[in-house]
Every structure is written in structure tokens, then in C-alpha cells.
Automatic annotation (TrEMBL):
SUPFAM superfamilies, per database record: P-loop containing nucleoside triphosphate hydrolases (SSF52540)
Domain Helicase C-terminal per the UniProt entry, residue ranges: 518-669
PROSITE patterns on file: HELICASE_ATP_BIND_1, HELICASE_CTER
GO function terms (MF aspect): 3'-5' DNA helicase activity; ATP binding; ATP hydrolysis activity; DNA binding; zinc ion binding
Name recorded for this polypeptide: Replication restart protein PriA
Cofactor: record remark: Binds 2 zinc ions per subunit.
Keywords: ATP-binding, DNA replication, DNA-binding, Helicase, Hydrolase, Isomerase, Metal-binding, Nucleotide-binding, Primosome, Zinc
GO cellular component: primosome complex
Cofactor(s) required for function per UniProt: Zn(2+)
Subunit-level organization: Component of the replication restart primosome.
Class of this enzyme: isomerase
Length: 772
């Protein structure tokens, strides 16, 4: 017998031990019995020969995969993650699989042949209709609208319904591909195939017709093979990539050198529009040539098409895309192409960090400063930081790229932990845009004269305008005119945002909504005053002032899918939009050559958050959005409207002076001992009763105060004191070193059951990005 540590998709804090007479490699999925059910498990480790547990263990029932899906260094990485974040291994491992690949096996019910016969004769109750296909009890009850468990049991006993297991979806779809074998090319289709090597049959038939493909197959000049299904990608051709300039070449050379050595971290600090994508492209090519695979992380789904286009036109079907907006089957298929080694380049959002790439040689984290690399629920990991650990374990090079690096990364580059690479110029002699600051004076002022005349000028030159405000909806605050109270979310410490076209009031945190306008809950008043602006209101105002121009809006309300976003960006690039109003979704990454004016309506919008990274975020957003201007033939121009022109985040953005911002921000962090001068962990205690959460936080504080190397701040009510009907108290842990923090946290985690009463929920946020 061999003994295996198996990770299960259950909230357990350790793997479980199972036995098997077979030798099973690590990284393979198996089926094991657990609590009277069956479950998919992942073989994580085999015990050394001769060692056996001193308790009863059960046997592995089935082996699902014929070869490991996850490489050894990824397994090691996953284990590192669950220890660092003190998170159940099963949930960490689940992030590494596409949905449905790592789960409990559900019991389903389906009619037997006899059952079907009786149903067709009308001898079974109407709801049995639903059992023509296998269904879980829950699904059946949902369809029938009442509890059917008793009646179902009777049918099972009579042999009219049987139980089955749902093993579907554990393996992704395959499809036929054509592989070119012949030497001499005699038709365009052969020429195409010869260049590509392999191509999905389905795609060939679409481009060349079914007949020619059929002929080619029967000629024996190609071979049919079964490979994981390829998703229908954005296979646009971006043409030949430009020749890199001197700075780009230097950067690529430095990365190439590292590829031959192993783990090294680079910070690629290149101003907006300096061509960082091209550096990634050539570095990726170098890695592939060395037989290594490549992982490219982008901060949000909206940016995948841009990067994807460049990589797909260069590397074809070797590229896989991984993000959560792909349809589940396409996502599973793409993932499987990676696990099987068919795709050697992955472009994806933060969860692609766990992609099953083998022989990983290069990891790129594009726009590394972006907060969206931090997952804010479940496993609260920071993908940029974790990319370093994955790179280290895989002995890969890691490139962090940004025009506005995080203060932490830049500090590490300056102190020699990372190698700094810089791009200081836009290619082809293009310059950074001119930025000017205009003071907002009147309360409630939305557009200054200066901005309006600049918009006019730009439109008359046939150029495009981008207006930026990082706030959705029509108005963020609605006051009752009678009693002066704002309309609040009943569950959260947040005001409700008014969405005019939907006629609704919405809470941005918990999704609570109600029709606009109700009676005031305080005084039953009927009249309301709208305060402040969101993008919907900006759009309406702009349409009123510039009635003949074509206005569009880009935010999470108007753009709900990747398709809609692509469509909007395409319309903008084709010149079908004159003025685009948007939130931070437009702020970065996109290359918009027609935009020559960027207007930032309220530059200090983000500075009001009580958070140590508020200034950093504001500076980054301003420089990024300004960077959308002047990427085409016409030089760009940016107008920042603000009431806080003297704040260092705004004055540094005005000069596009990263160093100036960095020095000032670093000084402040040093005084307050915030990262990079310390390591943080945020503990949030929440409960339906405030006192309950507070007293749990006090107990935790007492326990943690015993650790000398860790400073405990709080408990204090969280800035967002009430969220989703729960009151929140927080403790902030600060330590000089990772080790110090680790010891305190681990001890606390061990003891947490005795410290925290039922009904209090504890959330651990290690290396928090915000303290809200
Ligand atoms: N060497 C080059 N010669 C000519 N054009 C180039 C060169 N390198 C990049 N470009 C072009 O410059 C534009 C900007 O490049 P890219 O989008 O990669 O910038 P970026 O550094 O990612 O900017 P941002 O940080 O603003 O996203 C693209 O249109 C790209 O094709
Ligand atoms: Zn709410």
C-alpha cells in the first residue's frame, strides 16, 4: 500500500490521507469517499515508503487523470499560498482549476427505461417529466416548486428512477485538428497550414469551405489529431511588430540574459505609451525559444483583448486566454490546452497566476500597480506579490511593468532587490501630453470654462475627447429636501447612488436597490435634492451642451461584457465617437490614437478615502488617464479640474514626475511605519451586533499583544462600519519582518476557536491594499 495526502474541495485546514495499491503521481485527480459521498481530490504528496499512518485510512476509488495536470512547482506554490494566507488548501487548489474540475460529486436522479415507458403512458406524475435528464434533488425541487424527496424515494424503490453520479465536466472537450505533413505546397489552404503547423479543423472549414478541407484530409497530406478544443478568440492580425528602439532593446536584452540564469525580478518603469507591450513580446519570444513557457498577467478583463491581439498574431494557437468572463466550457478548454502543454503562453487576469504552465520561464505582470491584482474575497491574495513566489519556485524571471509603479515595487528596485529597467520616451518622437490644472471654484461646478473651450477646440479639429470621472451613476448622494437626511443603504454605512435611466437607487457595496424615489424614511418627505455627479450625469450634461456631437459612456453600467467593451473601443478607434465619458475602465492600458484631449473632472476624487494608499492611487490614476492623450499624430493635452492643486499627489501628476511623488510618499510612510517599512495584516471581526464583534476584537488584541515583534492597533470601528448588515471592528497588525508577523498570525489562527464566539465572522487580510 502507498499512502497519499489528498487535498479535497472542502473547508478543511489540512489534506487528508488515503491509501492505494497503485503508484499515483502527484498532481493527478482521484475520486475518494468522504462523508458518505464521493469527491474529487488532488494527489498532493506521497508518503515515503515504509511510513504508514497509525489510524484507519480509506482507499482511493478511482484515478481521474492519466497524467498530472499540475506541475510539481505549481503544487509547491499552492502549498506555500495556503500556509501564507492561512487558508483551506481545498479552496486554494480550487483556484488552480477551471470551475467544475475540482468539486464534490453530486448525486443525480434519472428515469430508468421502465420509468420512461410509464411516463409516456401517462402513468407517472407530471413532475417526472424533469427526470428525462439527470437532475440533482435540489434542481428537481426548484423546477417542481415543492419538496419531492418522499415521492422520489418511492420511484427509486419501484425501480423507475435510478441514482447516477455526475462525472460530466471533469474533462474538457476535444476536437479534431489538422497537422500538416507534406513538403510541397499546392494550394492556399496548404500554404496556410504549413505556416501554422496545426490548426483546428472547424476554423479551417470556416475560412476555406468544407470540401477543400475534406479533399486535403483524403489526400494524406495532413494528419487528423485530437486536441483540446480551441476557443474562438480575437484572432485579429496586428501586423508585424515594430522594430524595438534602443531603450526597448536594452530592456529585452537584460531579460534575455536572466532567462538563462533563473529567478530574477525586473521592474520595467516605462512612461505611458513607451511601448512596454513590445518588450513583453520579445522577451516572451526569447523564453519560448529556450523551450520555456510564458505567463502574462493583466489587471482586468478589459485589457486582455489588446495584449491578446499582439500575442496571438505573433504566437498563434500557442496562446491561451484565461479569465473569468470566458464561457465555462471555453475556459475549461483553454485551461486544458495549457495543462497538456499545447498552449505555452497564457494571457490572463489575476487567477491565471495558478495556470498549469510547465517549464515556466517568464512571468510578466503588466500595470503592476493596479489594485485589481488583489482579490478581495475568499482567498485574499495579491497576484503581483505571489507572482514573485511562483517565479522563484519555477526559477523563472519576473517582469513587473508600469508607468506608475507601486511605491513598494519602486522602493525595492531602488534598494537593489529588483533590477530597474526604464523607458523614458514614446516611440516615433511622440511626446507626453501637456497637463494644466484648473481650479474648481463654485460649489457643484462640473465643467470649468477652460475645459469647455478646450472641448470645443478639440472637436472642431476633428479630434476626440475623453472625460474621466471615477464614479458611476447619476448622483452619489440624494438628500431629502424636508429633513435634510441622505438616503442610506439599510445594510451598509453608504449612501445610495441614483441611476436615472434605470429609475433606481443602488448600494455600490451590497447591491441593495429600490425604485427612485421612495418616501423619505425619516420624515416621509417626497422631494429630494441630488448632490454630486457620476458618469451618467456627466454624459447627460455633455449631451445638453454639445448636442451635435456623438457622446458615449464607458463604465460598469454600460459595459457589462467583453464583447460590449470591444465594440465601444472599436467605435472609438473608427472615429464614430467624439466624446467618451468613463470611469477608471478607460484610464489605462488602451491605445487610443484619436484622443487628443483628456479632461479629468475631479482630480482629488480618490483622496478622501481614509487610507494609506489614497495618494498613491490618485497619482497613478491621474498619470494613467493623462497618458491616454497624444498617442496619435496630434500632440495631447490634459486638463485636471481640482480644488486641491497643492496636494503632492496632484502637483506631481501635473509635472508627470514619478520621482517627486515617490520621495514624498515614501517620507510619509516612513514616519507612519507603513509598507514598505513594515508588513501589515488586517483582522476584521463582523457580527450582527456591534458589541459582539467589538468584544471578540478585544480578546484577539489581548492574545496578540503577547507577541513582542508585532504591534497591534485597535480595535477600532472599520471606516465602512456596517456592510451587508454586519457591524465591523478591525485590528491592524504591524511588524518589521514577515517572520514576526507570521509567528503571531499562526499562533492566533490556532487559538481562534477559543477566542471568537459563534456568530462573529473573522476575515484575515494579509498585506491589505486598503484599510476600509
Ligand atoms: N519601437 C517602436 N516603434 C514604433 N512604434 C512602437 C514601438 N514600440 C511601441 N510602439 C507603439 O507605441 C504604442 C504604445 O505602446 P504600448 O501600448 O505598448 O505602450 P505602453 O507602454 O503599454 O503604455 P501604457 O503604460 O500607457 O499602457 C503602440 O501603438 C505600439 O504599437
Ligand atoms: Zn448596502
Amino acid at each position: 500500500m502507498y499512502f497519499y495526502e489528498i487535498v479535497l474541495p472542502l473547508p478543511l485546514y489540512t489534506p487528508l490521507i488515503y491509501a492505494s495499491s497503485k503508484e499515483i503521481p502527484c498532481g493527478v485527480r482521484v475520486l475518494v469517499p468522504v462523508r458518505g459521498r464521493r469527491c474529487v481530490g488532488l494527489v498532493f504528496r506521497r508518503w515515503p515508503e515504509g511510513e504508514s499512518p497509525d489510524f484507519q485510512v480509506r482507499e482511493i476509488e478511482e484515478i481521474v487523470d492519466d497524467e498530472p495536470l499540475l506541475p510539481a512547482d505549481l503544487l509547491e506554490f499552492l502549498a506555500w499560498c495556503w500556509e501564507y494566507y492561512l487558508h483551506p488548501p481545498g479552496e486554494v487548489v480550487r483556484s488552480a482549476f477551471p470551475p467544475g474540475f475540482f468539486r464534490e460529486i453530486k448525486k443525480k436522479y434519472v428515469l430508468t427505461a421502465e420509468g420512461k415507458r410509464l411516463l409516456s403512458e401517462g402513468a407517472l406524475p407530471g413532475w417526472a417529466e424533469h427526470l428525462k435528464r439527470p437532475r440533482t434533488l435540489k434542481n428537481l425541487i426548484a423546477r417542481a416548486g415543492r419538496d419531492l424527496s418522499r415521492e422520489l424515494d418511492v420511484l427509486v424503490e419501484r425501480g423507475l428512477v435510478k441514482e447516477t453520479e455526475d462525472l460530466s465536466g471533469l474533462k474538457p472537450p476535444f476536437e479534431p485538428w489538422l497537422e500538416y505533413l507534406a513538403e510541397e505546397v499546392s494550394s492556399p489552404i496548404e500554404e496556410f497550414l504549413k505556416e501554422k503547423g496545426r490548426w483546428p479543423k472547424r476554423f479551417l472549414e470556416e475560412s476555406f469551405g468544407k470540401e477543400p478541407v475534406k479533399k486535403l484530409v483524403s489526400s494524406g497530406r495532413v494528419r487528423l489529431i485530437e486536441l483540446p478544443r480551441m476557443r474562438r478568440g480575437v484572432v485579429l492580425d496586428s501586423g508585424e511588430p515594430p522594430v524595438p528602439n534602443l531603450e526597448q532593446t536594452k530592456a529585452v536584452e537584460a531579460i534575455k540574459e536572466a532567462l538563462d540564469k533563473g529567478f530574477e525580478v525586473f521592474l520595467l518603469h516605462g512612461i505611458t505609451g513607451s511601448g512596454k507591450t513590445l518588450v513583453y513580446l520579445y522577451a516572451a519570444e526569447a523564453a519560448l525559444r529556450r523551450g520555456k513557457s510564458v505567463l502574462i498577467l493583466v489587471p482586468e478583463i478589459a485589457l486582455t483583448p489588446y495584449v491578446e491581439t499582439h500575442f496571438v498574431s505573433r504566437f498563434g494557437t500557442q496562446v491561451a486566454i484565461l479569465h473569468s468572463a470566458l464561457p465555462p466550457r471555453a475556459r475549461a478548454a483553454e485551461w486544458f490546452r495549457v495543462a497538456r502543454g499545447e498552449a505555452r503562453v497564457v494571457v490572463g487576469t489575476r487567477s491565471a497566476l495558478f495556470a498549469p504552465l510547465r517549464d515556466l520561464g517568464l512571468i510578466v505582470v503588466d500595470e503592476e500597480h493596479e489594485s485589481s491584482y488583489k482579490q478581495m474575497e475568499g482567498l485574499r491574495y495579491q497576484a503581483r506579490d505571489m507572482a514573485l513566489m511562483r517565479g522563484k519556485l519555477a526559477e523563472a524571471s519576473v517582469v513587473l511593468g508600469s508607468a506608475t509603479p507601486s511605491v513598494k515595487s519602486y522602493y525595492l528596485a531602488k534598494t537593489g532587490k529588483y533590477r530597474l529597467l526604464t523607458l523614458t520616451q514614446r516611440p516615433k518622437g511622440k511626446t507626453l501630453p501637456e497637463i494644466e490644472v484648473v481650479g474648481l471654484k463654485r460649489p457643484g461646478e462640473l465643467f470649468t470654462e477652460r475645459l469647455l473651450s478646450a472641448i470645443n477646440e478639440t472637436l472642431s479639429q476633428g479630434q476626440q475627447v475623453l472625460l474621466f470621472l471615477n464614479r458611476r451613476g447619476y448622483a452619489p448622494i440624494v438628500f431629502c429636501k424636508d429633513c435634510g437626511e441622505p438616503l442610506m443603504c439599510p445594510n451598509c454605512t453608504l449612501s445610495l447612488t441614483y441611476y436615472r435611466s434605470q429609475g433606481r437607487l443602488l448600494c455600490h457595496h451590497c447591491g441593495f436597490e429600490r425604485p427612485a424615489f421612495p418616501l423619505c424614511p425619516h420624515c416621509e418627505g417626497k422631494e429630494f435634492r441630488l448632490v454630486g455627479f457620476g458618469t451618467e450625469r456627466v454624459e447627460a450634461e455633455i449631451m445638453r451642451i454639445f448636442p451635435s456631437s456623438r457622446v458615449a459612456r464607458l463604465d460598469r453600467e454600460t459595459v457589462t461584457s467583453e464583447r460590449k467593451l470591444l465594440e465601444l473601443i472599436r467605435r472609438l478607434k473608427r472615429g464614430e465617437i467624439d466624446i467618451l465619458v468613463g470611469t477608471q475602465m478607460v484610464a489605462q492600458g488602451h491605445d487610443l490614437p484619436g484622443v487628443s484631449l483628456v479632461g479629468v473632472l475631479w482630480a482629488e476624487g480618490g483622496l478622501h478615502f481614509p487610507d494609506f494608499r489614497a495618494a498613491e492611487r490618485t497619482f497613478q490614476l491621474l498619470v494613467q488617464v493623462a497618458g491616454r492623450a497624444g498617442r496619435g499624430r496630434v500632440p495631447g493635452r490634459v486638463i485636471l479640474q481640482t480644488r486641491m492643486r497643492d496636494h503632492y499627489a496632484i502637483s506631481a501628476a501635473l509635472k508627470q514626475d514619478y520621482e517627486a511623488f515617490f520621495e514624498e510618499d515614501l517620507k510619509r510612510r516612513k514616519t507612519l511605519r507603513f509598507p514598505p517599512f513594515s508588513r501589515l495584516a488586517l483582522l476584521i471581526f463582523s457580527a450582527l451586533k456591534s458589541e459582539k464583534a467589538e468584544s471578540a476584537a478585544h480578546k484577539a488584541r489581548e492574545f496578540l499583544s503577547a507577541f513582542k515583534n508585532t504591534e497591534v492597533l485597535g480595535p477600532v470601528p472599520a471606516p465602512l462600519f456596517r456592510l451587508s448588515a454586519r457591524y465591523r471592528w478591525q485590528l491592524l497588525l504591524k511588524a518589521e519582518t514577515v517572520g514576526g508577523l507570521d509567528r503571531a498570525l499562526k499562533a492566533f489562527w490556532q487559538a481562534r476557536d477559543s477566542l471568537i464566539p459563534a456568530g462573529v465572522r473573522l476575515t484575515l487580510d494579509r498585506d491589505p491594499e486598503e484599510l476600509l
